Structures
1.
Amino acid sequence: MQQQHIHCSVNNCHYWSTGNKCVANEIIVVNDAFGSQQPDHIDAGEAKQIEATPAGTCMETCCKTFVQKNSADINADNVYKTQ
Ligand code: SF4
């Protein structure tokens, strides 16, 4: 499988790493409306079941996998760190 490199500057995310790297094994990006309505456990693992969430600009998209460092919800989504 092709190795992806996800760069991210949201450094208070549990999956953020030095050099602005995302070290989540997988992420999902959705539109803001969907992201704000869904609980934390709806995440990359459900990607195939999530219907399209179109956006007009980049400002209407969000990383649904984001979870704050030291949050109690870190394990809610079955996403894990790769390093
Ligand atoms: S999970 Fe999303 S917000 Fe968190 S580091 Fe990765 S890309 Fe950034």
2.
Amino acid sequence: MTRSLSTDVAGAAMAMHEAAGVRCLMGVGVTGITGRKGQLTVTLDDGTELRAATVVVGIGAVPNDGWLAGSGLTVENGVVCDEYCRAVGTTHVYAVGDVARWFDRARGAHVRAEHWTNAVDQAACVAHNILHPTNLRAYEPVEFVWSDQHGWKIQVVGDTTGSAATTLLGDPTADRRFAALYADGQGLLRGTVVVNWPRVMVQCRKALREGTAWSDLEPGLRAVVNAASRPETKA
Ligand SMILES: Cc1cc2nc3c(=O)[nH]c(=O)nc-3n(C[C@H](O)[C@H](O)[C@H](O)COP(=O)(O)OP(=O)(O)OC[C@H]3O[C@@H](n4cnc5c(N)ncnc54)[C@H](O)[C@@H]3O)c2cc1C
């Protein structure tokens, strides 16, 4: 998870898995799976053999763009598009969803996203652009994905890739909730990973939508954290 959530959050996630009894083997590949249904042997490249009743393979995906070869479109790991999700070099061809690699202004690069929120938000943007060719809207999403693991509701908003978290709220090992926040060189919040903490999530989503400076956001977040750490009082 270091690629998508950065090393600090990935470490916390791995500790969470291990605390739940999951054994994580890192830095080792699979050379083969033999046996039959219910009685499988997985062989690793260091010679280790693991017995398994069930094997789940999660090795990523590639966009199904082969059928576009020879179409005249620029196809390189998906359909290459401008910031309006319009296939480069065309005026009336758009791409949406997993197969679209559009120019994301915020990152200054072509990006492909593989999740439902992206497919839905991008479709709305492209529908607008088809209907309003003289008033095109750039696709500038605040990405949002989530996952539920061992009682952790992990929510990821914006861009969390690359660097370490700027600020960590809460203690991943001691608390059942924490948040990692990522600001850029200009002090703008760029992304956040929130675990089991809906009030922090609401603040961060709003800040990301509005492009709030980290210094403006921090007092509000501190208030949420302080409120959470006050002992509960009975009415
Ligand atoms: C195992 C798995 C788990 C996932 N879990 C999550 C999750 O928890 N949360 C999340 O946000 N996202 C998840 N995703 C990603 C999510 O499913 C995709 O991002 C989303 O479905 C993309 O939508 P899409 O319309 O771009 O593509 P798709 O849903 O893949 O639809 C493309 C369609 O085009 C069809 N097609 C392909 N080629 C042709 C052709 N030549 N002619 C006609 N039809 C064609 C395909 O059959 C398919 O029906 C998961 C994906 C996988 C594989």
3.
Amino acid sequence: MQAAGKLDGAARVIAIVNQKGGVGKTTTAVNLAAALAACGQRTLVIDLDPQGNASTGVGIPARARTLGIYDILIGECAFAEATMRTDTPLFDIVPSTMDLSGAEIELVGMPRREWRLADALAAARAADEACYDYILIDCPPSLGLLTLNALTAADGALAPLQAEFLALEGLSHLKRTIDMVAERLNPRLKLEGIVITMIDRRVRLAEAVADDVRAHFGAIVYRAEIPRNVRVSEAPSHGKPVLLYDLNCSGSRAYLRLAREFLQRENLLPSPSGGGGRRPVGLASAA
Ligand SMILES: Nc1ncnc2c1ncn2[C@@H]1O[C@H](COP(=O)(O)OP(=O)(O)OP(=O)(O)O)[C@@H](O)[C@H]1O
Ligand SMILES: [Mg+2]
């Protein structure tokens, strides 16, 4: 299924990044995208992880993927050709294919190796090929060339964080990497948001870590926290974002709250303190 989405100059590109594995990057990319789409925002996820979990998680199994982000990175196809629709209205995806697992090595010898994704996005914009409000990039659990491409192409970075021992150290490392990329490759980039994921506030250590993260990183930490919720972990095996799988579970409600807060920061929804808001957005008020 080919998507008819368009990229224009207004699309904001957010890299969902954390070098630590299993902290909820893919879950956040897919479910924040679904929640933003439910709020009327045209959203594209780029699955930049060779594991391909975001692609599988929206119901696109490996056998259904012909072109993907690998083909875009090596300059073999345009964005629109590799973009696919998902079952969620307004939510498209550029899938990951098997070839992506060799890309870290292949990219090393290529010209503009850190800029391949940024260049491809710029070309898509220039060709008026596609148009989205938000592009979320699901990064692999490393700070290699694929993640560098995401950070070089992004307007901002959002880090999911699991509240456990050493989480703060990992995040400080990530912050330094982001600052380095901002200095050398992409001055637009900054760590815009931290989302606490899979939290169980009954566990004392999780609560202490979450409080530490808030004390250390302040306002960039989203008030919305994603609870550990079995429905969230079941949804990918059904090929659906949790919103489509079980709209009323605590995970869906949390991702809708996150989307609402995200859009408040974007000034697209009124903030709780009564600030601006450019246009009303449907489902966000359901969270
Ligand atoms: N809120 C949640 N409640 C319960 N399970 C969750 C939640 N969020 C994520 N999970 C589960 O935790 C596991 C890791 O999540 P996910 O794949 O999103 O992490 P990741 O950071 O993308 O991992 P990787 O670094 O391997 O790409 C998955 O099995 C996922 O289903
Ligand atoms: Mg992942």
4.
Amino acid sequence: MAQVILKNLTKVFDNFTAVKNFSARVEDGKFITLLGPSGCGKTTTLRMIAGFIEPNVGEIIIGKEIVYRSKEFYVPPENRNIGMVFQSYAVWPHMNLLDNVSYPLKIRKISKKERYAKAAQVLEMVELEGMGQRYPHQLSGGEQQRVALARALIVDPYVMLLDEPLSNLDAKLREQMRFEIKELQKKTKVTIIYVTHDQAEAMAMSDEIIVMNKGEIQQIGKPEEIYENPANKFVANFIGLTNFIPCKVSEDRKYLIVKDGKGSKIEYVVSEKHKEEVILCVRLEDITLKPYDEEEMNGQVIRATYLGNLVDYLLQVGEITMRVQVKDRRFSTGDKVSLIVDKKKILLY
Ligand SMILES: Nc1ncnc2c1ncn2[C@@H]1O[C@H](COP(=O)(O)OP(=O)(O)OP(=O)(O)O)[C@@H](O)[C@H]1O
Ligand SMILES: [Mg+2]
């Protein structure tokens, strides 16, 4: 439907910079997700794109049209061809579904007949056909969520902005709705900018993810790039579960010497760009355990938590602790084990 280009968007509330120098390009028909911890500026960014918050500086282009440029242009929300689903999805309890869904057309002064006809269409699109006369309290949480989606779709948006649209749903329904939203996008070919702080949701749905922290972009990339090649420690920590292990590089640069008080060694060729002191990042699933072997890095199980598909082991390795998640259920609290780090998955910072 339309590309979205954001250039150097900055928003300062009083003295607090909520979003700083945000630049990104969302290609037509893509699904892009803003991912980051609470308060990092996701909603503020989305509301600037929608036109509900005016940036201090920057430029916003939707399709071919500039909708915002500092001190020159400001196109109001209703003229931006955008559908938005808000963070606390408000379906109005006193309105039936037809009125809920057709409300954006009412604001645009479209006749009742026309807007009800269109509402019936979008209700069908989200698989709520024939339910127009019902009230929200007669729907399940997932169905209410779809009403909010239908209301965003009714304006034939070029772009849909979805702010944590699934946060009120239980885990199973959330997962199901992920697929439904993706299907809806296939049908409508609408560009979607999605906000979540749930990384699994971001991974499953997005063509690209923008990781944010404290108002600033940390990394933009495909889900697998973000997961496998995090740009910095923040991203490595925020996405997935990661051990951060302080190490020294051996003089011949062929070993990492773990600062665990006993100098456990991991064979690993360290490139020249790293200093003598490094932080080894390795994900919980990229370490395997085997029975004690004095040649390897060793530790003792201090907690084994059964997670169903995996066991989460907390290990005392000399003076430090490490966590490992593996299918292997052989070990229990008190056991001495060896830890084998998958060298291909090692990241150094
Ligand atoms: N109108 C406002 N006035 C002052 N500060 C604000 C205003 N709106 C947001 N902020 C601040 O800006 C920061 C970013 O807020 P924002 O709502 O964008 O975060 P978020 O990433 O959406 O977080 P969450 O995941 O909790 O929804 C927060 O620290 C917030 O307190
Ligand atoms: Mg928010």
